[in-house]
Amino acid sequence: MSRLIERLRGGLPDEALVTDPDVTAGYAHDHASFCPAGTPAVVVLPRTVEQVRHVMRTATELRVPVVPQGGRSGLSGAANATDGCIVLSLVRMDRILEIDPVERTAVVEPGVINAVLSRAVAEKGLYYPPDPSSWEMCTIGGNIGTGAGGLCCVKYGVTAEYVLGLDVVLTDGRLLRTGRSTAKGVAGYDLTRLFVGSEGSLGIVVRAVLALKPHPPRQLVLAAEFPSAAAAGDAVCRIMADGHTPALLELMDRTTLRAVNKLANMGLPESTEALLLAGFDTPDPAADLAAVAALCAAAGATEVVPASDAAESELLLKARRLAIHALESIRSATMIDDVCVPRARLADMLEGTAAVAAKHDLVIGVCAHAGDGNTHPVVCFDPRDADESRRALASFDEIMALGLELGGTITGEHGVGVLKKEWLAREIGPVGLELQRGIKELFDPLGLLNPGKLF
Amino acid sequence: MSRLIERLRGGLPDEALVTDPDVTAGYAHDHASFCPAGTPAVVVLPRTVEQVRHVMRTATELRVPVVPQGGRSGLSGAANATDGCIVLSLVRMDRILEIDPVERTAVVEPGVINAVLSRAVAEKGLYYPPDPSSWEMCTIGGNIGTGAGGLCCVKYGVTAEYVLGLDVVLTDGRLLRTGRSTAKGVAGYDLTRLFVGSEGSLGIVVRAVLALKPHPPRQLVLAAEFPSAAAAGDAVCRIMADGHTPALLELMDRTTLRAVNKLANMGLPESTEALLLAGFDTPDPAADLAAVAALCAAAGATEVVPASDAAESELLLKARRLAIHALESIRSATMIDDVCVPRARLADMLEGTAAVAAKHDLVIGVCAHAGDGNTHPVVCFDPRDADESRRALASFDEIMALGLELGGTITGEHGVGVLKKEWLAREIGPVGLELQRGIKELFDPLGLLNPGKLF
């Protein structure tokens, strides 16, 4: 038994330690393509804060890198193991400690599944908005690590807006409490927000105080067909400029529509270039849909179909929620990009992505959180085909370059991880990078926390 | 001419430099009581980013401390000069560079007055929510520095939620761009949020990208009278637990009501212990007011008066906006506290504050952003009376201690500054303090930026 395992055993029950290589291999990587993953020395599955502190103290003492993991549904390789590391899986710390309708807060452990929390708070008339596509498998800790988004963001914002306070185990095992449990608070630097999106590189989140909203009425959704990306982009701009705040404003291109039909036989219109879905959870959603329908028509929509009830709306949303999965079934592998541009540049982004696909002779389907300008071009390829793989990688990079050129960011909600770390430096520049590295060094002077990610 | 002035002149026009001690004395402090203020060596009023960079390069070269200032309406001494410092007043950098209804963003310089921005965006159908009481004189740069709030926060959140990206001149004169112009973005650590609330101690904000909302309908406001703090606190809890989201939910105690009447003869009910104002900017505010009226009655309100129109509502809001000013006119000086507690502890906070006032034989009026649990106990005293001053200081501290005991924070929106720096350590503890100091050192290794504040 190695010294590492022996030490870990000193503060962990047997069931919390996995060393069988066949099993630990299953924890080697997240959902990203093209990201190298090493072989972990051990997978640790703690149930208590004290156990996490023991793991970090041990790691610091023995200078062993630690890779924290949630549901491993990430798309950037941020949860990938490195050789000889401790994989610290937080999935067993999955208790909802408190849901308080007066404070509109929930206190949770990091391993709580997003959808489990969403359903639990809904039972008390409350709403936890962040809803990444992986919501049935991703954890709140992972959402905090990546700064996850979803369909809700155009109205409700991203994970960062919902994290009020954190308990964090630092790299040396000390416990830090950040933020507050109150609605407001500005005492000192905002360390809470520093941890959101930090991809496990600054500390291990072991408890989070989350803000909740009252549960909104069920959405009513409208579908609008457009003959071009330019027309769909124009509609998005008109909707936002006219002062509407849809609860979702989603776009699927023709490739995506075909893929969804093929997967689920949903009867989506395959002749259209772009389908826009606009949802409203307002007191009078039919009125909002009527106004948005007129704006879509003015932007050149060829067909506008407001759902007549919640069931019809749910069907349209189901199509959107299937989009990524459907695109994944086109070829054997995908790279999912996550470029966010100003809304006014959405059409340029869509057209530019189509040009990249044509240039490299690849299928690239795009679904987008159009209301945020956040596109997910999905590059489809066969990894056994070396040339196609090379072209896929090149396309992926060209799409990010295009996003930056259009005044956007390389990642709206998926994070940097391994996949985009060279691009992070391009986006934030040398001064920002130096300060970010300084923060990393401040929190993790030995460089043990999720090494090789972000930078 | 001192070496400092000579060097500053090298990159600044004459009109940007003020050395006359009679004039510079006017820049020595902000609006806080009991906070020491030194004598600045010079006041600099730059108009361009390049001029700010020159100031910071000069300060670094000559090791001169720099105290950044906005409208100096702060209540914690965060803008107070230190002896021999450069006061860096950003008030002349007051251009609104862009207002974009499609992106729902504004790009501004730091010296833009909050109310000026609010009116400018309103003309385009947009809304910049943060509305501190000082909104006619405070600057966006100052709002970012303190993490300012206001009446709007119960529905719309605080300044931090509206800052998407920043240009910051670092202590050595380098320019850092943080964040993004897009609706979403998670590339790297969130440096933007680190600057919000940092009280000018990490860098000089010279440009901000702010998020805007569509302009809401005008508010309809209800006033409810309560026979006790407990009943008013209960009403707040019922309103929030029942899923309402008022655009404001404010409380004034009897002392405040009397002070407002005395100042402005407004006919507010002086026999009541607490007056609650609830405002709604929803599509059907009358329906919301009716629901809230019923909840107030159930909580024991003795009188509930919904405003019948916007003019009546505006009158009620005017009373609230006068509250702090009215309390200031009771004695010759005030200390304004800013303790935020969980909503369920609001009544305890109000009763505890009354007990502190009785114990020290002082007038302490309380107005509160009740929907956030954010109370502003205003300790009234005569600074020429040494014993009364001592009791005022003791009360101020006991109120913060009570707030922490109730699970709250020492500052909901005013910041730490000089006034509460010993309390910051108590609130965040040694681990947090060490990391916060580390961040300060990373951004400002020579300790030149706003020294003696926060820590």
UniProtKB/TrEMBL annotation, chains A, B:
GO terms for molecular function: FAD binding; oxidoreductase activity. InterPro entries: FAD-bd_oxidored_4_C, FAD-bd_PCMH, FAD-bd_PCMH-like_sf, FAD-bd_PCMH_sub2, FAD-linked_Oxase-like_C, FAD-linked_OxidoTrans_Type4, Oxid_FAD_bind_N, Vanillyl_alc_oxidase_C-sub2. Keywords: FAD, Flavoprotein, Oxidoreductase. Residues 36-215 form the FAD-binding PCMH-type domain. Its cofactor is FAD. Belongs to the FAD-binding oxidoreductase/transferase type 4 family. This is FAD-binding protein. It comes from Streptomyces xinghaiensis.
